[in-house]
Structures are given as C-alpha cells and as structure tokens.
Design a protein that fits this description.
A hairpin with a 6-residue loop joins strand 6 and strand 7. Helix 3 runs antiparallel to helix 4. The N terminus is likely disordered. The termini are far apart. It is extended and about 55 Å long. By secondary structure, it is an alpha+beta fold. Strands 2-3-4-5-6-7 form a 6-stranded antiparallel sheet. Strands 1-8-9 form a 3-stranded antiparallel sheet. The protein folds into 2 domains: 111 residues, no CATH class; 64 residues, no CATH class.
Amino acid sequence: MGGYGSGRDSWGGKDTTEEKKRLDVRWLRQQGYLTPGQILSLQWSRGERPTGSAGGWVAQDLSSITMVYQASARGGAWETIRQVVPLTWTACNYGGQRPWLLCPVCTRRVAVLYLAYRLRFACRHCCRLCYQTQKQDRTDRLLTKALKIRKRLGQKGGGILERLPEKPPGMHGRTYERLARAAIAAEEAQLRGLAEVRQALGAKLRPEPGVG
C-alpha cells in the first residue's frame, strides 16, 4: 500500500500512527478496491523501503474485507493470520455512500485501522497509538503548522525563513490572506518559544553568585 506510511514525549512513550502499517478505507476506494469480490494485494513501505505485504478479498455484499498476512511478535515465530474487518456504509448529503471500517475490537466506525493490536488490525484507540504531532512540544507543533500552511500556499522546500509564496492561481484572495496571517502568527510564536527555551537554558548554565 505504497504511500502509507522530535520533541518531548508527553504521551507516556506511546507509539505513533505513522510507525504502523495501516488499512485506509479511503485509499482502498480511491484505488478501486471496494467492489464485490475484489482481490486485494497490498504493499506497505516507508520511503522506498518495503515493510510488508498482505492479500485478501472484499465480500460480495461489500459488508467486510478479509485480510490475510504474516506477522510475528517480537522474537516470536511468524504466523499466517486471517482477519475479517467489517465494512459499513453511510449516506452522503449529496448522494452516494461513504465506506467505513468497523474496528474488530471495539466496533468503532473509523477510516483507518492499524496493525498494532495483538498482530491484528484495530483502531487507533484500541492500539493505544497517538499522532506524531501529539508527541511534539508546543514549538514543534507551531513549526509543523507553519510549514503545512506554506506547503498549501505552494512552497516546495525550505523553511520558515523563506519568503512566503505568492498567492497560488485559483486561490481566493481572502483565503490567501487568512492562511498567510496564520503562518506568520505560528512562526512568530514558534520563534518566541525558542527564545524562551534558550533563555531558560542560559539561566541554568550561569553559575550562581559565589559559586566557582
């Protein structure tokens, strides 16, 4: 399934969603997999490095996806696992239906399941995963936000010291101004946060009067 898949950790050492193999119903639909009886052949990778594969099929009545794959616990023997993942559908406001996966553990309706629950796919909550941004401290989150906005505005590379991109073709002027203000605000707050950290570290490193 190609294309899937810093800061102080305040989440008790939880793994992140980015570190796990995933089953994304939106990607499956986009690729045309959600058709009756469709055979699945999925590949996971991190960058250009393959990290796993799985096969399976979609039920004829579109009520489930059966996954077949090999997995092992740390240091344990490899197992061939067959897991049935329920599918459900909800009506869209403007016609058509939207697919969802039902977590096989808690039956929560979600778009993504992760291979992190006793060698099975389950939702983020059952797998006790957090998002990478939740493991970042405030300055990291502000930097991530600013770079995300810059990317939406068309910036291809570089950091927050680069000049903000011009308004992309087709973007409404008010939308551009709102995003630009949000990026600048996040960047200024991030730089203030870094200055406060440096100041605090400097105070710790300075010897107390009469010491030394």
